[in-house]
Specification:
mainly alpha; Arp2/3 complex 21 kDa subunit ARPC3; Hypothetical protein af1432; four-stranded mixed β-sheet; two-stranded antiparallel ribbon; 6 strands; about 60% helix; rod-shaped
Length: about 675
């Protein structure tokens, strides 16, 4: 309880600041529901659930349909013309007052052309090109009469016709008939405009969409007409939420705060030392969660198939790589619930189910990322889980298989491809945050690594000792649920500092022991220095901090007992100052480094046993480990008493195998010599 209060006193407000910052950023980017727009593209399938009219909708025609109807009306339209009968009477009056030859013939010809009709040059050109086969004239009783334009002429053509009828007499007449001939049919622009507008209005009238009527089904292609209905639906939904926009904000805030509070409790109860008290890891987790959430909001809000392209499964893949599956699952659930805030109704439930299943599949198929092929396998499994769940949920909701949109599977495939590139993201995070993935640990544990090759050449005995320890601690780590890959890699590098003075360590000596000419203090100084020398070499080789911790902690604050005891004996059995004989530490602070300390001391001590049997090995293991606990070397270790008992059993079993006695092969007896006869 005191320790918990200490944590809260020193770091509580820092933790709160991290969480508050993450909450604030997510709330800033979460799209509001008050004015939410449907995400769709004309000509593409409708990916949202089936949309029904929230109220009666009066929807006009879309631009393309309206243009097609207008074109159709114009193509079949017969224009209205005004018929002026006074023009002919005026001309006939002038003809009657003008003395000329063939007076009656000219009058008859004029009467004929005006009976056929005279139009302006533009209309005459349309008649000649067969664009105006007829026209309409409205009489005094407002009745429309359709007339053929086959015989209608322009003023010029009418003059030529009359002149031909009177055999050229017009040229000798004082009457300038060419100037007198005017069109008696003129286009009625006002009536034509009113008529077309009326036809457009009548053609554009559509039956209203009643409340509850289906606007568009999931998977159906969005037509321009559908788009107008969807826009009308959006306006109604927006008007319904006017004045209520603060309610979704309050609701989102409560949900986000609750989710992050639960996340904080999880870290506090189950991952306090591993994540909560580590600023680097805590900032990484919260930054990752926030970044993926924002990316998901952006995709869902701006892209038609956003919910299918969301990189949610990146969370479990990255977290299970750097931490553990339990943390990966908890963070995945928080991520899914955060992203579901943007969905509504049945779509929200489908979203949660589909992405939850995908995250669980990602965690189950990627327990340990040790090969690139494992990530590809996980991506394939995630694709299959998305596809199966989408098909099943669509069939449940729509009641038929035809509603399944094939484009959605392509989006799942793109999502899986992006997931397969998580290896690059993991590599970047390793460099930026200083984490160590299981892939890196496997690479470090390769004995062909140049640093390990150098260790095997300079310190062959130390190298063999390290290899045996790596197998010992890896097996123990597996049994207690620790990181076996980290334990193996750390054990291989824990003694690299011995390369600076290999001859001063027993496993590398051959008949000559340089400690015989040194004082215990001098010998202890050289032996203890292999920790600091190893740390310098690790920094030079840029080994991860997790590996350097094995170098620092594998002796903890223990004494170099051999030399300390020798110094005490040289002092007449009286105690001497232990400081020169004490390793710099610190004591082990993780399960893996604790296992290495136990294994290192046990394996080294086992070499001095005179007899290897179950009793001697068991006594040795219990003595070494119990002694370390009694000295307080394990006071900072997260190992439980149960873990310690399991470790003891593993060490005893492993050492028994390493030092098993071989069966003595019997000598072949020679047959007895036969007595001479």
């Amino acid at each position: 309880m005191k320790e918990l209060k200490k944590v809260f006193a020193k770091k509580f407000w820092i933790h709160v600041a991290f969480f508050v910052a993450a909450v604030a950023v997510i709330l800033y980017f979460v799209p509001g529901r008050a004015h939410k727009k449907f995400v769709y593209e004309v000509g593409k399938p409708w990916t949202a659930p089936a949309l029904y009219a929230p109220a009666q909708l009066v929807v006009g025609l879309d631009a393309a349909s309206e243009k097609a109807i207008k074109d159709s009306i114009i193509n079949s339209f017969i224009p209205f013309f005004k018929h002026n009968t006074n023009i002919e009477a005026e001309i006939q009056s002038k003809i009657s007052r003008t003395p000329m030859l063939m007076h009656r013939e000219i009058s008859n010809a004029v009467r004929q052309v005006y009976a056929d009709g005279i139009v302006d040059n533009r209309v005459y050109d349309s008649i000649q090109s067969n664009k105006l086969p007829s026209l309409k004239v409205v009489d005094n009783e407002n009745r429309a009469q359709t007339l053929s334009t086959a015989k209608m002429r322009s003023a010029k053509a009418a003059y030529e016709y009359i002149d031909k009828q009177v055999h050229g007499v017009l040229s000798m007449s004082t009457l300038n008939l060419a100037e007198l001939l005017k069109p008696n049919y003129a286009e009625d622009s006002q009536r034509n405009k009113e008529y077309l507008q009326g036809e457009y209005a009548r053609a554009s009238i559509r039956a209203p969409i009643e409340k509850g009527e289906l606007i568009i089904a999931r998977g159906a292609k969005v037509t321009p007409q559908n788009a107008l209905a969807i826009e009308a639906c959006e306006k109604i939904l927006e008007s319904e939420t006017t004045g209520k926009s603060h309610y979704p904000i309050v609701g989102n805030t409560i949900v986000v705060l609750m989710l992050f509070f639960l996340l904080f409790l999880y870290f506090l109860i189950y991952r306090r030392q591993a994540i909560l008290e580590n600023k680097r890891k805590l900032s990484f987790v919260l930054s990752l969660l926030t970044a993926v959430t924002i990316a998901s909001y952006t995709l869902m809000h701006r892209v038609v198939y956003g919910p299918m392209l969301m990189p949610i499964t990146l969370i479990p893949v990255i977290v299970v790589t750097f931490f553990d599956s339990r943390t990966a699952f908890f963070l995945s659930m928080v991520q899914v619930l955060l992203c579901s805030l943007i969905e509504e109704g049945a779509a929200q439930g489908n979203f949660i189910i589909m992405h939850t299943v995908a995250c669980i599949v990602a965690i189950d198929t990627l327990q340990e990322l040790t090969k690139r092929s494992q990530l590809i396998r996980t991506a394939i499994c995630v694709f299959l889980s998305y596809s199966i769940m989408y098909a099943a949920l669509t069939i449940i909701e729509e009641g038929n298989i035809t509603a399944i949109d094939p484009h959605t599977f392509a989006c799942f495939a793109i999502n899986a491809v992006m997931l397969s590139f998580a290896y690059v993201i993991i590599f970047v995070f390793e460099r930026v945050f200083g984490f160590v993935s299981k892939v890196t640990l496997v690479e470090l544990a390769d004995i062909n690594n140049p640093l390990l090759q150098e260790l095997s050449e300079k310190c062959p005995g130390t190298f063999q000792h390290s290899v045996q320890l790596s197998n010992l601690v890896a097996e123990a780590a597996r049994e207690i649920g620790a990181n076996s890959q980290l334990a193996r890699a750390g054990a291989l590098y824990h003694d690299i500092g011995k390369m600076d003075n290999p001859a001063f360590f027993t496993e590398n000596q051959h008949d000559v022991n340089p400690h015989e000419v040194l004082t215990p203090e001098q010998s202890a100084k050289i032996v203890i220095r292999h920790v600091t020398d190893g740390l310098k070499r690790a920094e030079k080789e840029k080994l991860p901090m997790e590996i350097r911790n094995f170098i620092l902690e594998h002796h903890g604050r223990n004494l170099a007992k051999y030399f300390y005891t020798t110094a005490c004996n040289n002092n007449g059995g009286n105690p001497v100052d232990p400081t020169p004989f004490t390793y710099p530490g610190p004591n082990p602070r993780s399960k893996e480094t604790s296992l290495l300390m136990m294994a290192d001391a046990t394996e080294a001590a086992s070499r001095s046993l005179k007899e290897y049997n179950d009793e001697t090995i068991s006594n040795l293991v219990n003595k070494i480990i119990d002694g370390q606990i009694a000295q307080g070397l394990m006071k900072d270790s997260p190992l439980s008493f149960r873990d310690v008992e399991v470790v003891k059993k593993v060490f005893i079993s492993r050492l028994r195998t390493m030092y098993h006695t071989r069966i003595s092969y019997p000598e072949l007896k020679k047959p007895a010599a036969k007595p001479a006869q």
